[in-house]
User: What shape does this take?
Amino acid sequence: MKSFMVVRAGNSVRITINFEASPSPQVHWLKDNVPVAKRVTVSNCDDSSQLLIPSSERSDTGVYSITVKNLPPGPITLEENVPGTVTVTWAPSPDEKRDSRLHYMLCKMDSTKRTWSTVADQLFNNKQTVCNIMQGREYHFWVYAKNDMGISAPSVSPTWGTERKKERFVVNTPTRKDSDLRCPASFIVPLKRHTAPKGYECYMTCAVKGDPKPRVTWYRDSVSLNTNTNYYISEVCGVCSMLILRVADTGEYSVTAENALGRAECSTTLSVR
Assistant: This one.
């Protein structure tokens, strides 16, 4: 077929297009993507279509095109018979009576995936139940008619369901007064009485609490030991320890714990064998 034609004004124009289709398809002629004028005659048969302009005019100049389509299925209806499912029903394609091999394909798209997927193919009836329908989503369904020659344009369903709008998540935190955790210095575990051989080591411990953190001082016979090198003093997480590196003689040992809210003291006696 010629893709370009020049015709003298007043002459007739006849364009014939052959095609293959079963059953007979819908045929549409367009001029510059607009349906041809009423004075243009279109004749269709099973395997061809002819466009005839009896007397051409300059206004007939343009690009002519033809579209050949199989008839799609009829309107689609949607119904929920069982929660979580939707039954899709469509009117038969007008070609169904003329083609025993014609069947249908059902596709769906939901508002979260935004892609089409095939629900069922090779359907020879006009109804299909779709499962796993989620609340809060919108669904769209397309039904195609198919035969050995190809596939029709889809029949489009109305929208099913309602897309759930994302709501702003707000946490309301109750207001409450800050607790006052301060407390005066005190002893949880006091010093114990010790007996040790002369010249050996002796280990003493106690536990204190307080907020603010208490300042702890060790004494022997009322004399501070915090700077004495014969004593190793430590404090970890409120546990106060003192290691006497070399026991000399019997004496009284005491510990004081003091902070801004109070002062506490405990004591013990070290006996030397």
